[in-house]
Design brief:
Number of strands: 12
Helix content: 40-55%
Shape: elongated
């Protein structure tokens, strides 16, 4: 039984990533004719054309789409196996990591994370970018190293995920708001004027679904895309914002908050990264920093919450 040429895996990975014989040839430093011959060998080996002509370009076949993620992972695993293990010297490490998060993360966890990273690895820079959706493309293409969020259907199936903490939604109003002085009930909550938070601009959310079986409907006055906007509006008006409790701790300073009086499942906030970085020592160290900072911040928040409840 003949064994397949495993070198073809690298060629296949580049071809499927680039979608072009010419670009793949440049990336692998081969001539276009050599790359064309390699594509012919791949077609013969797999029994599939893989890339077919469509106008002036090439498009992948269904089989090629099926293989793309699997081949990429195989190549990354092979490179990790063959890469020499290096001792991580944090004091000499010079690297920029890009972290993608929803608004609230930087305000709540950023200062402690920057301080921790700066103390251990002064040559490391953190670049925070806003997370407008759950698309995993930035993690796949390497433009983002790490992100936090709730794992959902849009999250790439190959992504690594590790739970950071569980969170619940709370209602938030300005100090002196009429709701500060009353026991919260579903009816009182629904009767207020509300801010809906939706990155997709929807006109209802899970809270509205939870109110419906009780025969209640809240008045949505405005729709915003982020927690910071919602809390800024609530701070300056009589509107009610409903936000994750732990994720927005610092953003709610000086405001009155209360547990939502309707049943709503907790959310699990996770750390997400691409598997190609799984074994990278520097990336592994950064993941540990984020986990430790989140755990320490939450411990302090819980102590403050218990003190408030006792008071």
């Amino acid at each position: 039984m003949s064994h397949p040429d495993l070198n073809l895996l690298v060629t296949l990975d580049v071809l499927l990533t680039e979608g072009s014989v010419a670009r793949a040839a440049r990336r692998l430093r081969l001539s276009p004719s050599a790359m064309s011959r390699a594509l012919a060998r791949l077609r013969e080996t797999t029994g599939d054309p893989l890339l077919v002509r469509a106008g002036r370009g090439l498009v992948p076949t269904p089989r090629a789409l099926e293989l793309r993620e699997r081949v990429g992972q195989l190549v990354q695993n092979a490179e990790a196996v063959l890469r020499p293990v290096e001792m991580l010297d944090l004091k000499r490490l010079e690297r920029t990591f890009t972290l993608r998060n929803r608004d609230g993360f930087v305000e709540n966890f950023g200062p402690d994370l920057i301080a921790r990273v700066g103390e251990q690895a002064p040559g490391v820079r953190l670049r925070f970018v806003l997370k407008p959706d759950k698309d995993s493309t930035p993690l796949r293409d390497g433009s983002v190293d790490l992100e936090t969020g709730v794992v959902g259907k849009a999250t790439g199936p190959e992504m690594r995920a590790q739970a950071l903490f569980r969170d619940r939604f709370v209602g938030v109003v300005r100090m002196g708001h009429p709701l500060c002085e009353v026991a919260m009930t579903p009816a009182r909550y629904a009767a207020g004027r509300h801010i809906l938070i939706s990155r997709r601009g929807l006109d209802r959310g899970p809270i509205d679904d939870a109110l419906a079986p009780l025969g209640l409907k809240r008045e949505i006055v405005t729709v915003v895309s982020g927690f910071s906007e919602a809390l800024a509006l609530a701070r300056a008006s009589d509107l009610i914002a409903s936000v994750p409790e732990r994720y927005t701790g610092n953003l709610r300073d000086g405001m009155f908050w209360f547990p939502l009086p309707v049943p709503l499942p907790e959310i699990a906030v996770s750390l997400l990264w691409h598997p190609r970085l799984d074994a990278d020592p520097a990336h592994r160290w950064l993941r540990g920093c984020v986990r430790d900072v989140c755990a320490g911040k939450l411990t302090g928040s819980l102590k403050a919450q218990r003190s408030r409840e006792r008071g």
